[in-house]
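To close the section, here is one more complete example, presented without commentary so you can practise reading it yourself. The ligand is 3-methyl-2-oxobutanoic acid.
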Amino acid sequence: MTAERARITVFDTTLRDGEQSPGCSMNQQEKLRLAHQLDRLGVDVIEAGFPIASDGDFESVKAIAAVVRRPIIAGLARACRPDIERAWEALEDAARPRIHVFLATSDIHLQYKLRITRDQCVAQARDAVRFAKSLCEDVEFSPEDATRTDPEFLCRVLTAVVEAGATTLNIPDTVGYTVPSEFADLITTIRQRVNGIEKVTISAHCHNDLGMAVANALAAVSAGARQVECTINGIGERAGNASLEEIVMAMRTRPDRYPYETGVVSEQIFASSQVLSEITGVPVQPNKAITGRNAFAHEAGIHQDGVLKNPLTYEIMTPRSVGVPDSKLVLGKHSGRHALGIRCEQLGYQFDRRALDDIYRRFVRLADKIKNVEDHHLLELIRETHKPATSATPLIEPIAEAKAAAVGLPAASAAAAATPAASASTSNSPVPEPAKPFPIAPVTNAFGAPLPLHHDTHHEHQQQEDYLWGV
Ligand code: KIV
Ligand code: ZN
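Output:
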């Protein structure tokens, strides 16, 4: 008999904490596009932005709340009335809104940044949560810099906000300072000392300054946290946030150590990573776990030999399980619309029939000239086809247009939301630079001969021969 696995809530903050990283800011259409992909990925909560931070952020949160209806949509607010009111204004049309209130609690922050006493901090946190609760049932509270806060005082603040109605207590390692054993102890202390803790969800929010964000988040879960806050590709302030794909795949690959479940559709991980990278123009580090282009490439002769004999020798998860495209699907002039459509989906684009026909015609002309059409060619071609006034609708469901109109977006914006490239020409925001192609370089073997980028996942001998054709 298998024991029931605890369900972990995946709170994605790519659009808020992730967007704060240098070079990763996104406009409204880009945020909408990513929010739809996060929905497909199956995350439970999308933190869509920080509505008081700018009008752009406010509008983005509002637009996402209007069209992305399955996940909870969260908006960030400092522990003060204007922030909370603005967050609520952006969220009130959401199917499942959450106000996320934060206030620093460490002495360093109280003394130098906020210039308030501990007593004032407790009162401000309590009042802010009470006010948020008067607007919204679902309220999350974060004591910023929790891991450098006196644990006794931290528990006092947390007890006060639980009394005031907080439903999730998020424990941020704001500066990426903690280590797994210490963070697990902190979660245990909170579970033991905060009154009313059994009524709320404990969450972990880890930064990667010492490269331990994922390890810390997993340690927190093992100690009783039931929500993890994370970002695609681990983007975020400074060294980034805990990476969503690493947390999810650690749980999926090591259920013996992490017997937890998430709602994440792991096959959507690669597409999510690509969409983000394409939108921001920030490439994924080649050796990045799970989503880097080398994550499933084997080059060393000994490894290739092992994988040829049995993939289990060097593979702990299959490329297919995270949605890495099947290299056996070589795209050339004999390929059909079906294969083309599948590859487009793997790259993060979904097209209706007409749009796919458009792409297909151009694809055949290109394939005639260059024989094998690689992913980067296809991305270029998609962008070309998506010059203004196209009918293609990558990633944005048709419903987006109607819903966007319902929240007062002009028709042009709604159309733009449905067509990212068109959005650049119709929105008021400055026209973004043309997106750079996703940098998928050919992988070569030790002799410089090209290897297919990703291999089939059936782990059958014959297929491995194909994969290793360059040896
Ligand atoms: O890192 C942090 O402390 C945060 C909070 C706002 C949750 O991002
Ligand atoms: Zn953070």
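Once you have examined the tokens, check your reading against these statements. The first helix runs from residue 28 to 41. The pocket of zinc ion (ligand 2) is lined by residues 17, 172, 174, 205, 207, 237 (CB under 6 Å).
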